[in-house]
Amino acid sequence: MSDTNRPNVGNGLLAIHRVLTRGLEITIQYSGTFASAGFPDPQTREGFLLYARNFVDVLHAHHLTEDELAWPGFREKIPDAPYDALIAQHRQMDSLLAEMSAALASLDSGEVESRALSRFNRAARGVQDLWHKHIHAEESLFGPAQVVSVFTPAEHIAMQQAFTRHLSEHAGPPETAVAFVLYNLSPADRAVISAGMPRELTEQLVP
After folding, report:
1. Best CA proximity match to 48, nearest among 71, 68, 32
2. Is the model more confident about 104 or about 190?
3. Quick one: what percent of the chain has pLDDT higher than 70?
4. What does 2-27 look like in DSSP terms, one character per residue?
5. What angle, rounded to 10 degrees, do the helices at 9-37 and 113-142 form?
6. What burial letters (b/e) apply to 90-117, b meaning 16+ CB within 10 Å?
7. CA 13, 72, 174 angle in degrees (round to 5)?
8. Mean pLDDT of 132-150
9. Which single residue of 23, 79, 125, 171 could bond 177 by disulfide (Cβ 3.0 to 4.6 Å)?
């Protein structure tokens, strides 16, 4: 990771991608396990479903943040990036996220757990098929080294705060969504992401 003491909105992009990559791996692994073997106890079921719902909500909110804030802000200074293609890939993944969300909702309506979790797992694997190529393109275009000199330090700080605030506003209940994000980060990345969050959120609500 690049120097986190120097303002750089690219660091935030890398950090949230790490959150979502880990979240995707975990939801695929455990949805497959529980589809085959069932949940060992009610607490594990509740914890997995909360984690999975937060993954879906945070990834969708991340796409919204890029489409509604990041790409419009970047177009002026990085005009040649394939924004339309990136947005189209978001739409592909969002349709799969909707399927994942529907599968989770069906668990509450009494659908057989193994069937619902298998549906969830298939859709999550569909996201995975798109995810790594997608974030590689984004990080190649908008990573720390690429954007460090494109924006002023003040612009880097303002954008990171705006992106974090937008993500928090669209990712579901903040006490669980923010906890999901922070839980899936290393301490260094956690410092980058939490820097844009209100202290009452990270120090009081999340704990």
Report:
1. 32
2. 104
3. 90
4. --TTS--HHHHHHHHHHHHHHHHHHH
5. 160
6. beebbebbebbbebbebbeeeeeeeebb
7. 50
8. 95
9. 171
**Residue 95 identity (one-letter amino acid):** S
Burial of residue 6 (number of CB atoms within 10 Å: 0-12, 13-18, 19+): exposed
- Which residue has tokens 């991340």? 62
Residue 158 one-letter amino acid: A
Q: In Å, how far are 41, 44, 179 from 50, measured between CA atoms?
A: 15, 10, 11
Pair 206, 175: CB distance under 8 Å: yes
Q: Tell me 165's DSSP state.
A: H
The residue written with tokens 């590689």 in the block is 136
The pLDDT score that the predictor gives to residue 137 is 97
Say how far apart CA 65 and CA 99 lie, in whole Å: 21
Contact predicate 159/73, CB 8 Å: yes
Alpha-carbon distances of 91 from 31, 98, 130, 138, rounded to whole Å: 23, 10, 11, 15
Q: What is the pLDDT of residue 1?
A: 40
DSSP states of 124-140: HHHHHHHHHHHHHHHHH
Whether 136 has a pLDDT exceeding 70, the answer reads yes
Q: How far apart are CA 75 and CA 55, in angstroms?
A: 28
